[in-house]
Amino acid sequence: MQHDAHAHHEHGTDTTDHAGHTDHTSHADHSGHMVGHEGHAGHSAGEQHGAHHAPGKVSWSMAAKATLHCLTGCAIGEILGMMIGTALVWSNTQTMILAIVLAFFFGYALTLRGILTAGVDFRTAFKVALAADTLSIAVMEIIDNGVIALWPGAMDAHLDEPLFWIVLAIALAAAFVITTPVNKWMIGRGKGHAVVHQYHH
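Above: the chain sequence. Below: its structure as tokens.
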């Protein structure tokens, strides 16, 4: 009887251990499920983050801000070019060429300054500025200088004449209106100022 009781006791112990082992397996399965669930949640969050930066979702205000950024550099360069050309008594063609060169220079400089403050090296920052602003500034300069060239008497107007500033303001406004959709299209495809935005997050 004692032997039977002892055997029964061992059998009971084995059963308990086996049950504990089963519970442990279930716990492992449950943990795996939790890990999988967390991974799925992380994946969903990643997808949402990617969707947030998905191409095509660009507001007009974002495009306008990028255009205004370029326009500021262009305006500084053009006015400075006009002033230098007038002071040196250059021809209209020479003055316009200088104004365009300086417009590109200051347009790139403003973008470059913003990227460099993010801790990016100069070579990389310069490449980003070229990729971000070249088309935008080019479109602006074509529109801007086209308006000035076609406006009667605008090319011969001096800095102290109201006609010069009126036509310049109209030309810059036209350049802004026409270039904003271009920038919106470029940012929506991950180009233009979309390249710059990644260095400001």
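The helical segments are 2-52, 60-87, 92-116, 122-150, 162-188, 194-197.
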